[in-house]
Predict the structure.
Amino acid sequence: MSAYLDIVDVVKSYGAARPAVDGVSLAIGKGEFVTFLGPSGSGKTTTLMMIAGFEAPTSGDIRLDGRSLVSIEPHRRNVGMVFQNYALFPHMTAAQNVAFPLRMRGVQRAEQQRRVAEALASVDLQALAHRHPREMSGGQQQRVALARALVFAPDVLLLDEPLGALDKNLREQMQVEIKRLHRRLGITTIFVTHDQSEAMTMSDRVAVFNQGRIEQFAAPLEVYRRPATPFVGAFVGDSNFFDVVLSDPVQGLASSDVLGDIVVPRSERPPGSRVRLMIRPEAFGLAGDGVHNGCAAVVEGTVNYGDSVLVLTRVAGKEVRMRLSLRDAAAVVEGDRLNAAWRPEDGCLMD
Amino acid sequence: MTRFSDWFAWLVLLFLAAPLAIVVPMSFSNAPSFQFPPPAWGVQYYRAFFADPRWLQPTVNSFIIGAATAVVTMALGIPAAFAIVRHRFAGRGWVNLLLLLPLTAPHIVLALGYYTYFGRLRLTQTYLGVVLAHTCLCVPIVYLTLSAALKGFDRNVERAAMNLGANPWRVFRHVTFPMLRPAFLVAALFAFIQSFDETVVALFISGRDASTLPRKIFDSLRTQADPVVAVVSTLLLGIVLAGTIASRLAARRRRVETPA
Amino acid sequence: MIAHAAKAHRERPWLLLLPVVAFLGVFFLVPLGQVVASSVTEPELTLAHYREFFSDGFYLLVLGRTFATALLVTLACLVLGYPLAYAAVRREGTIALVMLTLITLSLWTNFLVRTYAWMVILGNRGPVSAAFRALGVVPPPEILFTRVASTLGMVHILLPFMVMALYAVMRRIDPAYLRAAQGLGAPPRAAFRHVFLPLSAPGIVNGCTIVFILCLGFYVTPVLLGSPREQMLAGLIGRQIEELLDFGQASAMAVVLLAATLGLFWIYNRFVGIDKLWG
């Protein structure tokens, strides 16, 4: 299966310093919703800009449906882009903004009006068609920007951190809207964000960027459960890291200074390998029947999140974060000794 | 202490405003002298001004020269502002300096230079000569106004236009220019006003044929012979007053229109 | 292909800049250069004009008078302008609007109109003379066509520049600083002296620079209001052009004036940065 949007070994360097994008390759399928996730300066926005055509790769290629995009000027690429600050034309009304790409493509006036009305209806903004951007709220401007980027049926939709300026409720609302539009139109979408919960909820696949490289490109659940590198493990969700020695990798036996002798996922590494073990806080529970890995923890504090409790503990001198249910954590107070345990399959080995 | 400084401030304001106020009643004087308060009242000098070609011609000249100067300065300044604000190149600092240099040279020095240089080129006492000189003097203010507007311009809007299918020329025509139009108008207006008001250089190179209004005012003040000067002053003051009030109102309206 | 696009981008600025650079080169730099050139070549290659300027008591007096007057005018504008700018910043609503409108009005009104107003006020048929007569001082002193008149006129004309320069800086001083000072125990006068005044210093520097430089090269008002026997540098240059037709001497004086002006700008740029001057 060849990719619909194929980013092939793209490098972008600005001079002597480390390249902003250092050999990024992604094969994105048609109709997929992909998120570029990473901290600022990781290269995710630069890569997006190269797809849109506002930056040219220093080397490498970007292909859409087989043909190379790199030599095509931005105004001929037929990709729809929503900018971080929306970039609506302040001197035009919402309707005029949405009509702009159709005008540029020589669409007839009557047809223009029909498609603009349709686009505005799809984001529920028909009533504001004749307002100017300065007369609209941030959320409304955002939806106009979305309508404008979709009205000309582009091949790809690019979104550059579009929800950053919105408050929490509005953001969640817009996440649903964007997903709904994506499902209805089936358009290949790339969404750039530094908010990992956003990436988790919206994407088919997540590309985790770090210092110009992609550390993992997989479905959200995979990225969360089986992070490929410690960076991904730490960036996405909360985590605990332990140094372990694999005494018998085939059987999944290992030992750690902190956790003692433990059972971990099986692997094909050579015996005696030193690896990092990641355990998410929610993998811990109170020791009960049939659970293999126990550890004695001293409680140093608790944080109540309403639906769960984060228990800050110390195990053999090391800080370990555990997330327990309300019921399990009900009687836990500072100073208590806790018998915690975790399942081998909830651990994740990384080199 | 603050109350004292407040009173002092009002006194200073009075100092600033009172002389301006004197000009108006003077224009309604019927006496042929600089006497205040005027011994007799009337509109004799208003009638004199509007009937006297020796006043009307310089006024018309100033309008023509001002308009021409504004046009030429904008034609030179717009591309220059774009070039400097949006591109990095060697010598950028020097070009920036050159464009601001006319602001630093005292007008009398330039008047001397133009007097001899344009004299040799037979450009003195011509419209063209004054327009050329005034354009040089107006380049800095136009450049400063335009580059300030350009620096505050959101490039993403242009990128959005490109992304939506507009080639560079269409981006300028449909997005950049309409958004910058107010700044363009302001810059052109500044150039016009600066040229219209310019006295010293015009004094030395405009001659009688292309004589400007400030030159005529200066000459008549020097000889103290012509009270019509009061009428001209009042009219100029009136225009500035109207303009100031209009701009304050526009500023207030703009503040109301943009919701918080 | 990519390199080609980058190169085109780098080349294009020159095309956009060529008109204005060529225009200024021919119609600004050349005449200016000619002034410098003729100061040493009129009527023949000589430094006589400069030697004369810096040794003749008459010229030195004019130079000294020009600088002294500029200094006096600058200080007067500062003393008068600071309280006004301060009041305009602290007041709100209609009062501030009125103040700013009047200041803007003064700023935009032609020099000549304001000079004319002073000619009326200080003339011997004007209100000042009438006041003297009413107080029994007969004949009333001649104020018009003296240094006093020209200095007064210059202060009046340049004051709005000082006020606007101060206002622009004062407006950006966060009132939170003064509140913090008072919260920490400083009475209003001390808060002003130790917090507001230092923070307004850039405005003071800007205003004084603008006013001083404008005053040095001022032609119109000193010529119309001042005494022909006590001229300032610009007026003297003008006379050399009009009456004496001594272009060599005029050029030399012009170069001295230009050098002084550019020197002051250079100093300002060194310590502050020339972009700050225009906010």
Observations:
- Residues 53-226 of chain B form a domain with the MetI-like fold fold (CATH 1.10.3720.10).
- The first helix of chain B runs from residue 2 to 27.
- The mean pLDDT of chain B is 87.
- The CA atoms of residues 125 and 208 of chain B lie 7 Å apart.
